[in-house]
Q: What sequence folds into this?
């Protein structure tokens, strides 16, 4: 199975190169880093490094408290952080600067994996969430590099999608020393996929341990002063294609009842900023953007957050938050950011990527599910008209957030034990 998988990877290489060409048109300096995708890069002295792989922005954010704990507990070990996406790379630079060495994860081709591991030479490999690459895992196993999946999650949809490759993935998972799952459900699914049951533990979700950025609340309060402290404001965060129209239609419904309401909208992917701005303006909204106007004025109805890494102060400035990727079958995004700021949360029906967290918030009273996009406007209006309920939901969201903390400490104990062995 692995030989067949590797052959298919080689046959797919021309398609991979075409994808690199396409992405290079979207991101200015992307062409300069193509060789990294094949394990070709210049690295400083990294012998004995600790390597953390986080595929994109969400995983980098989840890994942030763990990486900071590793820097404290292992100050002499070089830290390597890999991502797959340019936005993930930008987030690593924003959070850690030059204190870590960043490189793109190579494609899962044997020669690329060999070059990568020869350069990085890790004493420990930590894979965040769901990335299972057979050649990479076998490469670590052959070199005696202990491999651990942290914050491990596996949706029912992914488990079903892996069915044709289950034999190959079972072999790959047997190269893993430890799987620290987010929840009992995730742990059970990894066992069904073929992981050794004795090496699967439940450690909780690292995202509950994420720090509230310094100045987020103060920044939110400053925004409120600039656009009007009493003005009703809601945010639609991490939206995808197919969701923005539903959000804008909901805002039209809100404006009929609350004429001074302001919508903050933050698309998930930066390459879609311009298209979303065009959609907003074409519907006739008085629009401002973060890149041009910095903050909305009193006459603006929609504010487009066309920047990365700035969501927290905007969450803090909002009365309630809708978290995207959930009205369309993407699987949802991180509901913990608004919850950590005691903001009530709305989500759509598709939250399988954050199933346990979302259910915890809903059961705890800090979040509410919108079953159809047509109902979003009514749900937003209900909360905007009921300040007491908003405050109650926000407090309950924060209680759930606080009660689930501690995953970083549990994962660090597993790491300490593995490195001692």
A:
């Amino acid at each position: 199975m692995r030989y067949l998988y590797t052959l298919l990877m080689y046959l797919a290489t021309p398609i991979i190169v075409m994808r690199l060409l396409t992405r290079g048109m979207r991101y200015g300096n992307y062409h300069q880093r193509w060789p990294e995708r094949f394990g070709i890069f210049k690295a400083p002295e990294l012998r004995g490094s600790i390597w953390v792989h986080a595929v994109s922005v969400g995983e980098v954010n989840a890994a942030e408290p763990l990486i900071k704990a590793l820097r404290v507990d292992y100050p002499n070990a070089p830290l390597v952080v890999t991502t797959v996406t340019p936005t993930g790379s930008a987030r690593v630079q924003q959070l850690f600067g030059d204190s870590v060495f960043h490189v793109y994860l190579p494609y899962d081709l044997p020669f690329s994996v060999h070059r990568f591991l020869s350069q990085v030479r890790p004493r420990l490999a930590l894979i965040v969430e769901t990335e299972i690459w057979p050649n990479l895992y076998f490469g670590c196993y052959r070199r005696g590099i202990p491999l651990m999946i942290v914050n491990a999650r596996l949706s029912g949809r992914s488990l079903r999608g892996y069915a044709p490759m289950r034999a190959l993935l079972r072999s790959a998972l047997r190269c893993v020393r430890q799987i620290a799952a987010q929840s009992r459900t995730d742990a059970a699914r990894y066992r069904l996929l073929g992981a050794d049951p004795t090496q699967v533990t439940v450690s909780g979700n690292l995202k509950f341990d994420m720090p509230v950025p310094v100045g987020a609340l103060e920044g939110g309060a400053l925004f409120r002063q600039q656009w009007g402290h009493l003005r009703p404001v809601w945010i639609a965060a991490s939206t995808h294609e197919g969701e923005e129209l539903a959000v804008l239609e909901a805002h039209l419904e809100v404006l009929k009842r609350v004429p001074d309401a302001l919508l903050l909208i933050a698309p998930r992917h930066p390459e879609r900023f311009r298209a979303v701005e065009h959609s907003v303006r074409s519907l006739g909204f008085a629009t401002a953007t973060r890149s041009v106007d910095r903050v909305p004025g009193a006459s603006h109805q929609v504010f487009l957050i066309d920047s990365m890494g700035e969501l927290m102060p905007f969450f803090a400035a909002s009365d309630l938050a809708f978290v995207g990727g959930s009205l369309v079958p993407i699987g949802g995004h991180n509901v913990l950011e608004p919850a950590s700021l005691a903001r009530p949360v709305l989500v759509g029906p598709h939250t399988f990527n954050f199933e346990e967290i979302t259910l915890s918030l809903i059961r705890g009273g800090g979040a509410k599910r919108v079953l159809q996009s047509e109902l979003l406007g009514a749900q937003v209006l209900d909360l905007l008209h009921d300040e007491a309920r908003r405050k109650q939901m926000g407090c309950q969201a924060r209680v759930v957030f606080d009660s689930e903390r501690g995953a970083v400490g549990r994962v660090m104990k597993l790491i300490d034990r593995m490195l001692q062995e």
User: Anything to note?
Assistant: The first helix runs from residue 2 to 11. DSSP finds 19 helices and 14 strands in the chain. The longest strand covers residues 122-128. The chain has a mean pLDDT of 94.
